[in-house]
Design a protein that fits this description.
Layout: H1 2-62, H2 67-90, H3 95-123, H4 127-134, H5 137-213, H6 219-244, H7 251-278, H8 285-324, E1 329-333, H9 334-344, H10 346-351, E2 354-359, E3 364-368, H11 369-385, E4 393-402, E5 405-412, H12 443-453, E6 457-462, E7 468-475, H13 480-483
Parallel strand pairs: 2-4
Antiparallel strand pairs: 1-3, 4-5, 5-7, 6-7
Helix pairs in contact: 1-2, 1-3, 1-5, 2-3, 3-4, 3-5, 5-6, 7-8, 11-12
Catalytic activity: ATP + protein L-histidine = ADP + protein N-phospho-L-histidine
Enzyme class: transferase
EC number: 2.7.13.3
Length: about 475
Amino acid sequence: MAVLMAFGFLALLAVGYAAVRVMQRNEVHTRLVEHTFRVENAVLDTRRLIEQSETARRGFMLMPSRIVTLNTFRRTQDELDRTLSRLGGLISDNPVQSRNLQSLRLQLANLTARRLRSIALVERGDQRGALMLFADDGEVRDLRTIRYLLDRMAAAERRLMTYRDQELRASERLFYAIIVFAGGLLAVVATISLVTILSYTRDIARSEEALQALNVGLEDMVAARTADLTRANDEIQRFAYIVSHDLRSPLVNVMGFTAELETAAGSLGALLDRVEADAPELASEEARLAAREDLPEAIGFIRASTQKMDRLINAILQLSRQGRRALTPEKIEVAAMVTQIGETLSHRLSEADATLSVEGELPMVVTDRFALDQILSNLIENAVKYLRPGVPGRITVSGRRERDRAVLIVRDNGRGIDPRDHQRVFDLFRRSGAQDRPGEGIGLATVRALVFRLGGTIDVASTLGQGAAFTLSLPLVLPHQEIAA
């Protein structure tokens, strides 16, 4: 019976492992489906931009006085180049689509050259010549070829989408099948456990009946039966304790028991002190070592672990609260905010032989003061924390304005970040490099969450031993939908 129960628990572990593997596979399929959606959107954006640029070119040829159409053409061409680059990055792992994109670029190059020649003719006043060039059949062929290539790329992605969607659905079905199997297996194990407990109970009852029937004079037999009964009872108690209590004990119980252990350890230490004072020959070296070193050390490890888990839970709660806090936009002088942060960290900067300075003129933004202060404070504090020993620290904050966005760069000359960890450092509880500084891996995850709430992006550029540069891109004015968040 015990072997069967052990097999059941091992089977449950195997089912749990299989469920985790299926979930991981499901995540991979989900990412592939998402990637296919992004490629399809990029193809649609490419088609839209080509058609828009053609419309703008024709409008300019018909009405040269409308400069706005020419500006629209040029802006659309710039956006088309960026979209093609993004599309190239997305399909770099697909040789067929890469060849299609290469052919598309060649056709677009020919078409763009004709468009630019016709626009140049209009700008020189030769509208008739531009219209004659526009009527060339070569341009029509190029457009048809481009549309054909875009249709082919879109069709390829739709085929991939169908295949990947089928794989995703298959993974989901397999996951549900494993869950159902696990539920059935759990029911079997529970039934076996119940049967085992009932069997033990019946054994105890039979033992008690046998004991009552024995002669009072048969003390040895009674003692043997009593010992057997005691062992069986202990097994039942231990089994029931594990099943019904120990496996469900929460963290707060561990912390409470740790406090009780600390009190008991203090009492043992005091008792050992009295024994050493009154009867030192009774205090063995093992007892001293256990009471004064082993037990306090074990309790310290337990308390440190539970406190760390408590800090992580509190950090996650704090991070979630940041997502629910209402944003309050106001006009902020970023340079003044950086100066104020530097004054707050002046003692740490002095200890680290580091300086914090503002380079150039920082743009003024209208955003949430508390969120921006937390973002910059975290980045600057990280820069101070990870400076190279023996090298005077230089932390600078620079910025510029790009259209309707403000770009802020926090740069240092610290020990840097491995390029493989550039994105992972923004994940919760993930840290890079030697873990010789205090921290739980929360700061940069909080920074990224706050930046996203402000409608911005954050990136890092760094090389080991050469410092790091964190680049923020924020809207100059917090968007209306974020204000209402």
